[in-house]
Specification:
It is a single chain. By secondary structure, this protein is mainly beta. It folds into two domains: about 5-65 and about 130-150, Chitinase A, domain 3 (Roll); about 75-120, Thrombin, subunit H. Helix content is about 10%, strand content about 35%. It has helices at about 45-50, 145-150; strands spanning about 5-15, 20-25, 30-35, 55-60, 75-80, 95-100, 105-115, 115-120, 130-140. Strands 1, 2, 3, 4 and 9 form a five-stranded antiparallel sheet that branches. Strand 6 and strand 7 (about 105-115) form a beta hairpin. The longest helix is centred in the N-terminal third of the chain and has 7 residues, at about 45-50.
């Protein structure tokens, strides 16, 4: 079966940056499994995997615009330390907040100056050219429930309490 919309796809991959540094890998955690055509992975990566079959190898290079976007100075700003619940702030600390569209994002503390905290709401991989190199392990048809929920479901013996309340 070829990868197409509503296929459950299992891939092993390594993701490196433009310098060849390993950023992520499925080596220890097992294959990445996703529902194709439902925006469960980077859209441009998904587009490049379409049409492949189990056993196929792939190398996909994504520009920053195709991956997590360019770094934007508009997403780096200063807030007061008093805006945080904890006084124990450290450089590199990450926390979840929401953007102007009320979408969850990860922000990183990039500097501490007295009672001011400089935070960066750019995605941690923004500005990077990323290369995905790997192979397709398995492709199967999604169940109607997976399609209606927009994501894959674990087999019942692997599930830890369901995925979205109705599973």
């Amino acid at each position: 079966m070829k990868i197409n919309d509503n296929a459950v796809v299992s891939v092993d991959f390594e993701m490196t940056n433009q310098d060849g540094k390993l950023i992520d890998s499925t080596e220890e955690g097992g294959a990445m499994v996703y529902l194709h055509g439902h925006e469960n992975i980077i859209p441009e990566l998904e587009k490049n995997l379409a049409g492949l079959e189990a056993g196929a190898e792939f190398t996909v290079e994504l520009s920053p615009e195709q991956a997590f976007g360019k770094k934007s100075d508009d997403k780096i700003f200063t807030v007061s330390k008093s805006d945080f619940e904890t006084p124990d702030l450290k450089l590199g600390m990450q926390f979840q907040t929401v953007d102007s569209n009320n979408q969850p994002i990860i922000a990183t503390i990039v500097d501490l100056k007295g009672d001011k905290v400089i935070i960066d709401e750019n995605h941690p991989l923004a500005g990077m050219t990323l290369t995905f190199k790997g192979n397709v392990q398995e492709v199967r048809e999604a169940t109607l429930e997976e399609i209606s929920h927009g994501h894959i479901h674990q087999p019942k013996e692997e599930s830890k309490g369901g995925c979205c309340g109705s599973c």
